[in-house]
């Protein structure tokens, strides 16, 4: 067998597409007459095939060959042919964006799998199998926690248990992955479902990581980083996590033009032998949290006809050293502003992706702002607030209030532009294990919404539902607003309210645009594994 994982269809433009694969040995990979040689990382082999010469607005079936032998579709496959659907380039008939986050894999343990429930993305893929190609979405956006490096399945824990050992200083945890090879096993298991492999082969996939792709609470604060940096195995873990993210997720987010300009990519594909030392260096640069220029960026932009997707790295992009507490560096904010305002008269719908929600339930937003002020204090109160910050996951945009206000100003500035404002600005997020639509009230013409879909497949503890329902309560929000103002947190530049949800349980969401109109739909699995629409919200009048 030559093909281990994939093919995964990634960036698709008007005349080009990229297809990602993992093979079992060094190989030549071919798609539609376009070739790529694999590169090696710690004994695993990968290629990103750039397919060019496609016709705008076309649908093309494809096969994948490894060393001249067809490996995809597999012989006797029961799934429809994989296709590449290119965009027409300009404003078009609309867009269908499927999104969600927090997808825990099937475990093979009947009791645990029953507790987890139906995988909403699996259910969506199965529904697509029986539909015509015209019903395929334009893109699937995975908004974080694609793998759970710190919450392994029982089988994965048993597999690791026999491999751990060494001295006290180097002993690795029995229930978390550490090495690149262990991450490889996670990705192969999580993306190995037949339905998911077919879906990812035929619909463009955009991705960004969140904390569980590395570790729970990743980059919550400077204190968290200092604590983890003292753990003997942490340097191995952060290198493996960031390197595997670059290989499995980040590369496909880039367009062919961006790949050509990427020094790291050019160096790695041109190298012979194991590229791990190059990726370890890349990971060290990515992990730098000073407010300088890292030399690489995980945020990216996709132009999708009359819509624009801008994905924001709100996890690794944080600046926490030297007393700073920023969600993004100043340079990253400058890049974001440039992408949001560039040629805006050609954009009907501006879509921002952030694994972490910008607009939380109002009471929860206040509590995070209050905690940030307390955590910045010296002494016992500051240390206690830091413990609360980490224990309660107070790490979203409002917990970085200066960054929250800066992002809010950018969004409202775009929405309020005269003559060149998009019809909608939508922020797509996950992480918080409930799904909702929040509408921001502001003076601009464009409608602004926070759209959250979480989880796609995970168990939500019983206490979460009542806690979050209370966090949406206007009565509770009045109390937390007063508390926040009392301790010195500035009032937000806008208000927002829940106009859809909250929903609890495994969910998949679809943002649909048509001209300058937009609607979002949330679906959840029924007992038989089919999907039922739970709520739909029109984002435009």
Could you characterize the architecture of this molecule?
The protein is an alpha+beta fold and 541 residues long. The chain is globular, with a radius of gyration of 22 Å. It has 16 helices and 23 strands. A hairpin with a 2-residue loop joins strand 3 (28-31) and strand 4 (34-37). The longest helix has 20 residues, at 234-253.
Order of adjacent strands in the largest pleated sheet: 14-15-16-17-19-18-20
Range of strand content: 15-25%
Count of DSSP strands: 23
Distance between the termini: 54 Å
Mass-distribution shape: globular
Rg (C-alpha, Å): 22 Å
Structural class: alpha+beta
Low-confidence stretches: none
Figure out the total of helices: 16
Helix content: 25-40%
What would the average pLDDT be, to the nearest integer?
93
Q: Biggest sheet: strands, sense, closure?
A: 7 strands, mixed
Topology:
Blueprint: E1 3-12, E2 17-23, E3 28-31, E4 34-37, E5 39-41, E6 44-51, E7 59-61, E8 64-66, E9 69-72, E10 83-85, E11 95-100, H1 110-116, H2 120-129, E12 139-142, H3 154-161, H4 180-190, H5 194-202, E13 205-207, H6 222-229, H7 234-253, H8 256-261, H9 263-270, H10 276-287, E14 300-304, E15 307-312, H11 330-341, E16 349-354, H12 362-375, H13 379-391, H14 401-415, E17 424-429, E18 435-441, E19 447-452, H15 464-471, H16 474-486, E20 495-503, E21 508-514, E22 517-525, E23 531-538
Parallel strand pairs: 11-12, 12-13, 15-16, 16-17, 17-19
Antiparallel strand pairs: 1-2, 2-6, 3-4, 3-8, 5-6, 7-10, 8-9, 11-21, 14-15, 18-19, 18-20, 21-22, 22-23
Helix pairs in contact: 2-5, 4-7, 7-10, 11-14, 12-13, 12-16
């Amino acid at each position: 067998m030559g093909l281990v994982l994939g093919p995964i269809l990634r960036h698709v433009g008007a005349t080009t597409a990229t297809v990602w694969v993992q093979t079992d040995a060094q190989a030549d990979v071919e798609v539609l007459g376009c070739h790529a040689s694999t590169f090696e990382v710690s004994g695993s082999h990968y290629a990103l095939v750039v397919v060019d010469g496609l016709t705008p607005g076309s649908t093309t079936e494809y096969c994948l060959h490894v060393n001249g032998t067809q490996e995809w579709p597999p012989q006797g496959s029961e799934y429809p042919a994989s296709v590449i659907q290119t965009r027409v380039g300009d404003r078009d008939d609309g867009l269908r964006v499927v999104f969600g986050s927090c997808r825990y894999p099937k475990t093979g343990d009947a009791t645990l799998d029953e507790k987890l429930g139906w995988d909403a993305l699996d259910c969506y893929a199965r529904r697509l199998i029986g539909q015509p190609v015209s019903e395929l979405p334009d893109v699937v956006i995975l908004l974080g926690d694609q793998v759970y490096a710190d919450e392994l399945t029982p089988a994965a824990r048993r597999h690791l248990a026999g491999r751990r050992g060494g001295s006290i200083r180097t002993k690795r945890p029995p229930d978390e992955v550490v090495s690149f090879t262990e991450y490889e096993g996670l990705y192969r298991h999580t993306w190995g479902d037949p339905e998911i492999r077919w879906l990812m082969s035929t619909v463009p996939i955009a991705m960004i990581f969140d904390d569980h792709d590395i570790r729970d609470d990743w980059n919550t604060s400077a204190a968290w980083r200092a604590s983890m940096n003292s753990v003997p195995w942490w340097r191995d873990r952060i290198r493996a996590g960031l390197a595997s993210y670059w290989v499995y997720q980040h590369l496909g987010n880039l367009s062919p033009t961006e790949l050509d300009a990427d020094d790291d990519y050019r160096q790695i594909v041109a190298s012979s032998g194991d590229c791990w030392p190059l990726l370890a260096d890349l990971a060290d640069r990515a992990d730098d949290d000073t407010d300088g220029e890292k030399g690489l960026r995980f945020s990216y932009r996709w132009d999708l006809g009359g819509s624009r997707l801008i994905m924001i790295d709100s996890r690794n992009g944080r600046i926490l050293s030297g007393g700073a507490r920023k969600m993004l560096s100043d340079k990253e904010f400058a890049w974001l502003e440039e992408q949001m305002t560039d040629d805006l008269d050609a954009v009907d719908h501006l879509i921002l992706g952030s694994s972490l929600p910008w607009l939380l339930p109002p009471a929860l937003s206040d509590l995070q702002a209050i905690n940030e002020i307390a955590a910045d204090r010296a002494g016992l109160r500051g240390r206690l607030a830091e413990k609360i910050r980490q224990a309660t996951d107070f790490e979203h945009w409002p917990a970085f209030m200066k960054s929250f206000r800066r992002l809010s100003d950018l969004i409202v500035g775009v929405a309020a532009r005269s003559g060149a404002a998009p019809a909608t600005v939508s922020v797509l997020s996950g992480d918080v294990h409930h799904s909702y639509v929040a509408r921001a009230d502001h003076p601009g013409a464009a409608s602004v919404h926070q759209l959250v879909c979480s989880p796609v497949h995970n168990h939500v503890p019983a206490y979460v539902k009542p806690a979050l329902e209370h966090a949406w309560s206007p009565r509770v929000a009045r109390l937390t607003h007063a508390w926040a103002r009392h301790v010195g947190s500035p009032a937000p530049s806008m208000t927002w309210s829940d106009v859809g949800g909250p929903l609890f349980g495994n969910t998949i969401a679809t943002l649909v645009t048509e001209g300058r109109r937009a609607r979002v739909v949330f679906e959840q699995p029924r007992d038989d594994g089919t999907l039922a629409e739970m709520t739909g919200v029109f984002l435009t009048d």
